[in-house]
Design goal:
It is a single chain. With 218 residues, the protein is α/β, with parallel strands linked by helices. The chain is 26% helix and 33% strand. It has two domains: 42 residues, 2-Layer Sandwich (Phosphorylase Kinase, domain 1), CATH 3.30.200; 149 residues, Vaccinia Virus protein VP39 (Rossmann fold), CATH 3.40.50. The radius of gyration is 17 Å and the shape is globular. The structure holds S-adenosylmethionine (SAM). S-adenosylmethionine binds next to helix 2 and strand 7.
Length: 218
């Protein structure tokens, strides 16, 4: 059965129809990485597994140019990085993860793709990878840590170009396990406003409950 392209969302990101179902996909010449389906030249991008896919399906898109340089904090085993690597196909993604277990699987991905530079490092210590990472156009952060704003600001100070942008995924429970999520999100947003302009924020429901994305400019 053929894949029908319903809509192009941004470079190498499409909404397609296959076997009467709609899928968010990235155009990819690589094999599946995390159990997603591959049809024709496309890899399914599962919103329950990737907050970036959830954001896009909820109607907000960032137009990543294919040649940008990106710093990705919290790569885990590379689910979302694999799709960003399809998008940023002529640029680079410096991807930081501090846990050895997911990093092992992430390395398999990085070995087959030339645009991923894997770093087994602690994102709260950017000085430890400052000799490797260059100035970037974009920082993506998904680390689910209490002090994630501080970590983001520190990395932006080191690596983000003036006028560069970032996307932060915020899980209310990682910051405060008892407070109302809306109060936690307001606090996170006002902290971020001290250093960045907020371009957009929004929920990731129903795919990731009690999470928001925050798109910022430096
Ligand atoms: C929610 S998972 C990331 C999922 C991934 N971004 C994706 O969409 O495929 C959070 C990851 O951040 C990592 N992490 C948390 N704190 C970190 C830190 N200070 N430095 C590096 N990695 C960190 C965790 O080990 C975990 O793998």
């Amino acid at each position: 059965m053929d894949v029908e392209i319903l809509k192009q969302i941004t470079h190498n990101v499409f909404l397609v129809k296959y076997e009467n179902r709609e899928f968010l996909v990235t155009k990819s010449r690589f094999k599946p990485h995390y159990g997603e389906r591959k049809f024709s030249d496309f890899r399914e991008w599962i919103p329950y597994r990737s907050k970036l896919a959830a954001m896009i399906l909820n109607g907000y898109t960032i137009d990543f140019r294919p040649e940008i340089k990106m710093l990705y904090l919290g790569a885990a085993s590379g689910t979302t990085v694999s799709h960003l690597s399809d998008i940023v196909e002529r640029g680079y993604i410096y991807a930081v993860e501090y846990s050895a277990r997911p990093f092992k699987k992430f390395l398999e991905l990085a070995l087959e793709r030339r645009n991923i530079i894997p770093l087994l490092k602690d994102a709260s210590k950017p000085e430890e990878y400052a000799g490797i990472v260059e100035k970037v156009d974009f920082i993506y952060q998904d680390i689910a840590q209490k002090n994630q704003n501080e970590i983001f600001a520190k990395n932006a100070e080191f690596f983000l170009k003036n006028g560069g942008e970032g996307l932060i995924m915020v899980k209310a429970r990682s910051i405060d396990s008892v407070a109302e999520p809306s109060g936690v999100f307001n606090r996170v947003l006002s902290e971020l406003e001290e250093n960045f302009s907020i371009l957009k924020h929004g929920k990731l429901d129903p795919f990731h409950r009690d999470h928001i994305f925050v798109h910022v400019k430096f």
